Amino acid sequence: MKRTFKITCITLLVAVLATGGSFGQQLPQFSQYIFNGLHVNPGYAGYKGEPYLQSTYRSQWVSFPGAPKTFTVTADMSANEGTMGFGFSLLSDQLGPASTTGGLLTYAYRIQTGAKSHLGLGVSVGASQYSIDGTMLDPNDPNDPEIPQGTVNMFTPNLNSGLFFHTPKFYAGFSVYNMIGKRALEKEDIALAYHDFHYYLTAGALFEFSDVVAFKPSFLVKEVKGAPTNYDLNAMFLFYNRIWLGGSYRSNMKIWNENLEENLSNRNAVAAIIEIFATDRLRLGYAYDHNLNVLQDYRSNSHEFSVGYYMIPRKATMKNQRWF
């Protein structure tokens, strides 16, 4: 019974996190990752050149009891004339009685591959804690001795790696998350792919239409065992080097995984995104996600807020603007 209880609770967490279309991923989904690549690639650390601190809060499916709520703080900087990047990430994620907390330290070695191009090779190490609070459950049998009276905690180490290539007008990256730690959970009698490898492939470009308007298309592909392949298609417009306006389309497709449900087209979502440089140091962002699936009639949409702060003033005239 104990094993069944753990698997049931954690399967629920796996099923609901990330997006409405990723029924196998447990890593949280962020619509504004396109402005902070540290969420999906440790090789991104140090890319901006300037010390940068960002906090993001996401409330998903707001009208559902126990819906996911995620809070993160990330920071990164470059050193040694830009050849090295350092960063850290803190995560708190809550889904009903289940919660995840974690911390990562990141290092990236940045190689200059051309006059204006660099390749970052990054790694992040840390630990995660997965918890289930039995006091928040409403069991059919309240006298079941296997239902925890308090909080059950499970710990695991974590290791991620990634490559991030960029020029002033183009970037591409590939990363792997959850490279270690699965065995630590299996020792807790959790026999499912809860802490499996996650693969991320991303790329984007910047096209300047004029001195006033620029256009940035990008994509992100996410792959994990036991789930459909997820992809994000993003389109953002930059006005006056200060205001980003655009959106994302998120969906799924079956490529590598077999024995998955056929109606993947019912798991789509769109997001409207705005980012503003309120000052030379302060960056504010907001994303509104709308489901195009079975939840669309329940007004169970998502809100995501972000605040970024440059430790030194951002200069709009810098030769290599950090638009990614």
Describe this structure as you would to a colleague.
The protein is mostly beta strands and 324 residues long. The chain has one domain (2-310): Porin (Beta Barrel), CATH 2.40.160.40. The chain is 6% helix and 50% strand. It contains two helices and 15 strands. The chain has helices at residues 2-16, 182-186, and strands at residues 52-59, 69-79, 84-95, 98-112, 118-133, 151-167, 170-177, 198-205, 207-208, 213-224, 229-239, 243-253, 267-277, 282-293, 302-310. It has a 14-stranded antiparallel β-barrel with strand order 1-2-3-4-5-6-7-8-10-11-12-13-14-15. Strand 3 (84-95) and strand 4 (98-112) form a beta hairpin. It is globular. The protein starts with a helix and ends in a 14-residue tail after the last strand. Residues 1-25, 189-193 and 316-320 have low confidence and may be disordered.
Low-confidence stretches: 1-25, 189-193, 316-320
Rg (C-alpha, Å) = 20 Å
Q: What percentage of amino acids are in beta strands?
A: over 45%
What is the helical fraction, as a range of percent?
under 10%
DSSP summary, beta strand count: 15
Give the integer mean of the pLDDT values. 80
Give, in order, the helices and strands.
HEEEEEEEHEEEEEEEE
Q: How many individual domains? A: 1
The backbone outline, from C-alpha atoms, is: globular
| CATH class identity | Mainly Beta
Q: Structural class of the helix and strand makeup? A: mainly beta
N-C termini distance: 48 Å
Largest sheet: 14 strands, antiparallel, barrel
- CATH superfamily membership, which one? monomeric porin ompg
Number of helical stretches of at least 4 residues? 2
Give the neighbour order of strands across the main sheet.
1-2-3-4-5-6-7-8-10-11-12-13-14-15
